[in-house]
Please model this.
Amino acid sequence: MQIINLIFSLLVLALALQSQAISWPHSHEHAVLDTEGNELQAGQAYYLVSAARTGSGGGVALDRRHSSHSSTVKQHSSNTNLGSPVSFSPASNSHDDMIIRKDSFFEYAVDAMFHQNTPSPQERTIHEATDLNIRFSDMPVVWQVQESHHSSPKSYALRYVTIGGQPGHPGSSTMRNWFKIKRISSSSNPEYRIAYCPSVCKSCPVECGNVSIMEENEKRWLAVSQYREFPFMFVKARRA
Ligand SMILES: *[C@@H]1O[C@H](CO)[C@@H](O)[C@H](O)[C@H]1NC(C)=O
Model:
């Protein structure tokens, strides 16, 4: 009987130590939802469109600004144009291999016993307020914040959203490549803002902002602003 008590005590101790060792980085964060109410998944294609009503334009696509060397992300001015699909990948995918939510831990453990190396479904879910790479689905490079000059009425520096970043490798050298999705409204059709406020490098100075729309020569460019955020929603892209 004493032996059984001892074994039981050791087992409890082992479990306690194990649960201490596992952290739950995403357990307090909500999944980002698409317009059908499904959780956004890493690597899947979505149209990133305006969530504001009439006259606020459609989806995002790539175009060239006159005064810039790099391709810049714009928003179509037509409400009916969904633009080019984009995909998201969390920073954690490339440097944490332990992303398990508390509520799914036992499910995961059982799953892992029977199917070795099966990734947890949560590993692929995009959560609010986590560092993400954004890319156009058919391109290898990711979105990047780049300072450039706005042409009119007078020239001043703006931080445009361009492409050209290397995916992954969260840290000081990739600071400009990380965005976060944050919920604006709490209605059943949630609207989101895209924030630029990376946490991939704690010691790097960063001026946070929200992705907004900057009109210039009849085109609507995505730029990081201190004041205005633009409301977006995610429409799942269906492959033809
Ligand atoms: C981004 O937008 C949110 C919501 O409107 C606002 O609370 C926040 O201050 C903005 N952030 C920056 C850095 O401008």
Observations:
- Residues 193, 208-210, 226, 229 surround 2-acetamido-2-deoxy-beta-D-glucopyranose (CB under 6 Å).
- Residues 43 and 97 are 17 Å apart (CA to CA).
- Helices lie at 2-21, 92-95, 105-114.
